[in-house]
Amino acid sequence: MDAKPKAAGKSSIGHIDLDLALDNIMVGPRATYLDLGCGAGNYTLALARRLGAGSLVYALDLWEDGIIALAETAREEGLGNIEPKVADLSQPLDLETGSVDAAFMATVLHDLPEAARPGLMGELSRVLVPGGVFALIEFKKFAHGPGPSSPDKRIGPEDADRLTAPHGFVRDGTVDLGEFTYLARFIRK
After folding, report:
1. If we measure between CA atoms, which residue out of 127, 113, 121, 103 comes closest to residue 167?
2. Would you call 44 exposed, middle or buried from its count of C-beta atoms within 10 A (0-12, 13-18, 19+)?
3. Cβ-proximal residues to 76 (8 Å cutoff; 6+ apart), any chain
4. What is the pLDDT of residues 45-87, one digit of tens each?
5. pLDDT > 90: what percent of the chain?
6. Mind listing the domains of the chain with CATH numbers?
7. Cα–Cα distance, 39 to 115 (Å, whole number)
8. Which of 61, 65, 34, 66 is nearest to 47 (CA)?
9. How far apart are CA 50 and CA 126, in angstroms?
């Protein structure tokens, strides 16, 4: 993978109902969370601010400049509950088995090479506790608006089902986050 991911520096946070998204990601105030493909950490920071002390948010991204910016913002805001790490999501995650209560990926999966997606889902299944939550935020399968220009490059809820099911995930809901985005919430069996 390239050192600077395709959409480095972009964020979909302005295209979603953030409160609704966080409500579907959160499993408790003293839980451990994982933001996959965090970029400069817009979602990470929003979640960490809401959770406060006693929680932990791992924030992983290949984009080193984004991780540095996230670490600086977290330090400036006194958010000691964020642990940013440079990580290639196409490789095994440097996290202990069963160490995460909830994970999320916000408009990143469509940019990950298709060949790397099953491996990431396997790793996600490994690091999540049984009963843990995986929330996938993606662009709706439109040929317009933000996100990939072709609907074929977008990942709809049924596409996500096919990708996650072999790794022990069951979708327990889909939420409309706005005109262009949705959140599919999965539970790890």
Report:
1. 121
2. buried
3. none
4. 999 999 978 999 999 999 999 999 999 999 999 999 999 999 9
5. 85
6. 13-188 (3.40.50.150)
7. 21
8. 34
9. 26
